[in-house]
Design goal:
Blueprint lengths: L1 E2 L2 H14 L5 E8 L4 E9 L15 H13 L3 E10 L7 H6 L5 E8 L2 E10 L6 E4 L1 E2 L8 H8 L12
Length: 165
Amino acid sequence: MLVLGEEMASGIREHGAKVYPHEACGAILGLDAGAEREVRALFPLVNRRDDSPRNRFAVNAGDVRAAEHAAAERGLELIGWYHSHPDHPAQPSEYDREHAWPWYSYVIVSVAAGQPRELTSWRLADDRSRFLAEQIAARGESAANPEQGRRAADRTTRVGAPGTK
């Protein structure tokens, strides 16, 4: 389960709408407790794909290192990635599967005509054969400790990558 507060969900949606009609992308920073992951910060990235940014995104090794560094500075982990699907459903494509890594959460937001729509999360199967839907719970709806989720919401931050606002 991915615990995703409204502020973080709004940040992903806003990023997708801002760069429409191109794909937005970024890193998800948080805490992994095994069965449950809590998103604490977003690390927006620049889509480095020059040839087809409308239906593909790319990050480079420097982006990954920067996201890992931002997470470590805050006592968090790099727990996943997000991107938008302009004018397409919030479901992973075959291209997404071929370029994904097991363990991470992959949040996808559909952006239709510049307006953010459905937001979903996925995990790549260990054998890399398919994506599995990952349940999203709003912060505080966690079965583990709702009060802890509300307190964590007070500490949630959004971080920016170099070259982004």
